[in-house]
Design goal:
It contains nine helices and 15 strands. With 382 residues, it is of the alpha/beta class. The strands form three sheets. Strands 10-11-9-12-15-14-13 form a seven-stranded mixed beta sheet. The chain has a six-stranded parallel beta sheet with strand order 5-2-1-6-7-8, sandwiched between helices. Strand 1, helix 2 and strand 2 form a beta-alpha-beta unit. Helix 4 crosses helix 9. It starts with 26 loop residues before the first helix and ends with a helix.
Amino acid sequence: MQASTPVNRHHLPLTRISSFSCRRVSSASRWRSTVRMGLKEDGPSLAVVGVTGAVGQEFLQVLSDRDFPYRSIRMLASRRSAGSHLTFEGREYEIEELIPESFAGVDIALFSAGGSVSREMAPAAVQRGAVVVDNSSAFRMDPNVPLIIPEVNPNAMAHITLKKKGKEGWLIANPNCSTIICLMATTPLHRHAKVVRMVVSTYQAASGAGAAAMEELELQTREVLDGKQPTCKIFKQQYAFNLFSHNAPVLSNGYNEEEMKLVKETRKIWNDKDVKVTATCIRVPVMRAHAESVNLQFEKPLDEDTARQILKEAAGLVVVDYRASNLFPTPLEVSNKDDVAVGRIRQDLSQEGNHGLEIFVCGDQIRKGAALNAVQIAEKLL
């Protein structure tokens, strides 16, 4: 649920972001509650696929935080996790093995179990009438599958409704985390002055590679400080006290897959095949939340004061831009927050006539960059 926000929330110091971003309640306290606010007889039937993973766990946290209505929920994972139990909102659930029959009677299925699982199981869920919101890259560039950021292009899913008896469901793709964070900040400006070229440099946290990468970063940090050789299982090189090019496979054009996702997904979401996008994606030793430096070139002039006001009024954004005190967004301050933070808003001096801007964006990869965006999509179906 949204915390109450003062009128001047965008002018609060960086250290007070938590006072106006969506309130986070620890799973330990919230899920043990005997009052299950989301459980409603007239709500949809849910399934969470990949429930034991970092994003799967965040799905549950977001559903609980937002009091998402549901009449039932199925916890689905691999055979290895099947049979174990978890407690959610005061009720104990047995984790079930993911099979096609798991989706019988399911209205909405939230998927975060990897592309190969989605390619196999998402069609099975759709065939059984579920609306699938998939967090993998499996269907993002399928022209028949809408790629949705609710604050950006909700009209692209306007034709999708919850199933009617005997009818097939639908498939909706959740964009890549870097794309979500980037377009949350750039779309309001794009609507005003039309972006013709965008240069993005990302600084991506361990959370983007999952819980195991986060654990390895913590382990490596301890090992390096103790003078030991760092354990490198998730990544091929030392992560602690280091940074390196994103670990996605490098393509023949010299870009890696993560960078090309930003290029292709932006064009699809904006429905603009002509917008020029280039990206460089870097892994940095940050536990959670990504940061991005974004350079924009516009078709129409846009001065920084107008841009700042546009961003202050945009849904899901908070402006943190204090030049005098050199305070701007940081991954630490946006971790576990719903809002995407934007700052370092300034004119690009290399472009004439106010046709260019520079901004710096931070957003929680697991929260808004994955689970929250997917749940917001599901909310559009209610």
